[in-house]
Amino acid sequence: MSGTDTVYDVLGIGNAMMDVLAKVGEGFLSERNLSKGRMTLLDAQSAGKIYADIDPEREVSGGSAANTVAGLASLGADCAFIGKVHDDAFGQAFRRDIGAAGIDFFTEPLLEGPATGRSIVLVTPDAERSMFTYLGAAEHLSVKDIDENIIKSSKIIYMEGYLWEHLESREAVLKACELAHKYKRKTAFTLSDKSCVERYRADLLKLVTEQIDVLFANESELNALFETTDLMDSLDKIKSMVEIAAITRDARGSVVVNGRVKIFVEAEKIENVVDSTGAGDLYAAGFLYGMIQDRSLGTCAMIGGIAASEIISHYGARPEVSLRGFVRNKLLKYGKKA
Amino acid sequence: MSGTDTVYDVLGIGNAMMDVLAKVGEGFLSERNLSKGRMTLLDAQSAGKIYADIDPEREVSGGSAANTVAGLASLGADCAFIGKVHDDAFGQAFRRDIGAAGIDFFTEPLLEGPATGRSIVLVTPDAERSMFTYLGAAEHLSVKDIDENIIKSSKIIYMEGYLWEHLESREAVLKACELAHKYKRKTAFTLSDKSCVERYRADLLKLVTEQIDVLFANESELNALFETTDLMDSLDKIKSMVEIAAITRDARGSVVVNGRVKIFVEAEKIENVVDSTGAGDLYAAGFLYGMIQDRSLGTCAMIGGIAASEIISHYGARPEVSLRGFVRNKLLKYGKKA
Questions:
Q1: ipTM summary value
Q2: Is residue A184 part of a domain?
Q3: Alpha-carbon distance B284 to B291, whole Å?
Q4: Which of B111, B113, B163, B116 is nearest to B142 (CA)?
Q5: Which residue of A lies nearest to B261 if distances are taken between CA atoms?
Q6: pTM for this structure?
Q7: Residue B160 lies in a domain
Q8: Residue in A1, A262, A293, A336 to test binding to B, most B beta-carbons within 10 Å
Q9: Nearest Cα to A158, choosing from A194, A124, A187, A123?
């Protein structure tokens, strides 16, 4: 992918969130009638109730697209991020972390109104994560925050499906797509969450078909988009809608669809999955890194899988090692150029 | 693939054959108890009997590996060929055609003994081809014909499974592999034919595992190698035996296996299949051309499919147009660099 007059490899646009991580027993969710393995949106009060019952292990910067650009930065890419925090302690922590990762983040914080968004991530003993999200300030991302110069300066604009949860941020997505096309930049989008897809199926189908070049999703999100349980059916449908679709399949690896080509890549073998939070975000990071390096789509998927394997080997969705070296090592093991 | 001290992109080693093409009705084969859709070896007398009963449409140069290097030359690659003809009219025609295609061919012809090999290709109305082969002079390819300097000068040494039918040519294959490894050249091999695989299964498994980097086969040949009817099972077995396996699947396209990556590529759509002779040979040509151009494996498979689509749109297994332009046009249509 040849950079012309661009400064950033990838601009991420998403909900700026702090992740509150807590381990809970299998019973915690069922006792409170909380759904497992997906993201549930909460108001401030309900979020406060869960928060009161847990023993937070860590409070770390999160947010799906923010995790992806953090992964990209760790791989060596130049990134920017657009997302809304409040100027509170969580907002300042988010800004500090994303700055420390070397990512440009210029979005004005809220000075009043809702607090910085947070996602309570409950990790059960099977390493499954269940997320309970209070969007807070993130809901107030709007078209005014979509800086035309940053879009113009970015090779790829990566946006998360979670932004579709609120009208203001939805319009921000459409504005970003419009500007990306104006400057002939690539748009990438993740479906983010199965229930999100179920809520906005028609909207998302239209968005993906008309606006998106590179789609990320997991198997169940993609199947939800087409109301099927047959992945092959979904793959045959998505192939004419986007240039590239990269679909993650947990322990079965991933599959990339590019027109008449379908590339199945086995998963990285890892000994102990500690916390699957961020696996999809980091897969996208690795995949996009491969793209900006002009690697083959199979290698993009491998790099995605390698980056994801790092993130699920520990708590939290931001890399704990330099992903650049981590990926290089693995690629060399597979006999690929690093 | 970076060429160091090489002259040729691909050296083909195979049976040097003339193809005698004839259209026959569906009944022709069953009346004579001849098997359909595969290659049957004949002695000179039996071949003569069939020859007497048909009305040959064309007599053209053929031979599996020879067709592949002819395809490669038409794509713009530098090629050489090693194979045995008699210095008779058929042998001279073979030499003239391969020379006209710009391929170096230095193998000494037989001056006495069996005539140049011929393959009677009977094409039924369903475009299926049934081959009846008299190997003749081709059987006498021997280790003495494997020129160390040509192996040393070639990036890829491509050999056909048909060579396993005779002891002398089998030893020539092993010698070529030995020299290829000595000079760190890539070895490529096609399984050629299902019945050939059934006859020499154990031998071919050993050869492929120990000597071959890039394997070509169609689905039924690969399944025969592993005595299964489950392609996924075969693909999982071949992945640890060779670096790359490229498996053709007729109208369902092809699949490439490279370690943990499996790439499924749909077939080229063509309106009218006239004669499937040479489809596998030309797929290999396109695929190897992609490899020497350092294209991604998905693109290699696409180029293979495009080259095959040209050959099955007319009688005979040598290209009738410049494949270079033909492939460029199609790749541009798919939005790929040409």
A1: 0.76
A2: yes
A3: 10
A4: B163
A5: A265
A6: 0.85
A7: yes
A8: A262
A9: A187
Residue ranges in chain A modelled with pLDDT below 70: 1-4
The reply to whether A53 falls in a domain is: no
In a domain, B26, yes or no: no
In A211-260 the beta strands, taken as DSSP E runs, fall at 214-218, 244-248, 254-258
Quick one: angle between helices B89-100 and B64-75, nearest 10?
30
Give the pair of three-digit tokens for residue A33.
């009638």
pLDDT at B1: 52
Q: In the prediction, which pLDDT does A2 show?
A: 47
**Is residue B338 predicted with pLDDT exceeding 80?**
no
- Domain of residue B323 covers 8-16+62-89+139-333
Candidate from B262, B302, B334 with C-beta closest to A264: B262
Element (H, E) at B270: none
Q: How many CB atoms lie under 10 A from the CB of residue B112?
A: 6
B258: part of which helix (H) or strand (E)? strand B254-258
Instruction: Compute the distance between CA of residue B265 and CA of residue B333 in angstroms, rounded to an integer.
Output: 16
Rounded CA gap, B262 and B237, in Å?
A: 12
Give the C-alpha separation, A212 to A258, whole Å: 13
> Is B298 within 8 Å of A298 (Cβ atoms)?
yes
Q: Which of B249, B260, B263, B286 is nearest to A261 (CA)?
A: B263
* pLDDT tens readout for residues A144-200: 999 999 999 999 999 999 999 999 999 999 999 999 999 999 999 999 999 899 999
**What CATH number should be reported for the domain holding residue A298?**
3.40.1190.20
Number of structural domains in chain B: 1
Under 8 Å CB-to-CB from A103, ≥6 apart: which residues?
A69, A70, A73, A79, A80, A81
- Could you tell me if A253 lies within 8 Å of chain B, comparing CB atoms? yes
How far does Cα B330 stand from its chain's mean position? Answer: 23
